[in-house]
Design a protein that fits this description.
With about 100 residues, the protein is mainly alpha-helical. It is about 50% helix and about 10% strand. It has two domains: about 30 residues, no CATH class; about 55 residues, no CATH class. A two-stranded antiparallel sheet has the order 1-2. The two termini are about 20 Å apart.
């Protein structure tokens, strides 16, 4: 088993008691996530794979949803795609 990602979370002790008593139904409302930008999935997985992939092939696979210029900027670290485009890139790069 491999560790896929580390997430830092905070918890509110009063809210934890509410979850245990049944007043708060979702633990997601209790925990606050504190993302570490040096360890996010974009930096650790997607960007390195994006840089290794052939640019012309990526452009074709994006089917006009992400421009060549946008891919170049992403690979250079000058921009980061929105969630929808990040998911598209993950699917393409996982193939």
């Amino acid at each position: 088993m491999w560790i896929d990602q580390i997430k830092y979370i905070g918890k509110e002790s009063n809210s934890l008691e509410e979850v245990e008593s049944g007043l708060e139904h979702s633990q997601e409302n209790v925990y606050t996530e504190y993302p570490d930008p040096r360890r996010d999935e974009w930096q650790t997985k997607i960007l390195p794979a994006l840089r290794e992939a052939e640019l012309n092939k990526l452009v074709r696979q994006c089917e006009g949803k992400i421009s060549r210029r946008a891919l170049i900027d992403m690979r250079a670290g000058r921009s980061k795609p929105h969630r929808k485009n990040r998911e598209l890139l993950k699917r393409i790069l996982n193939k």
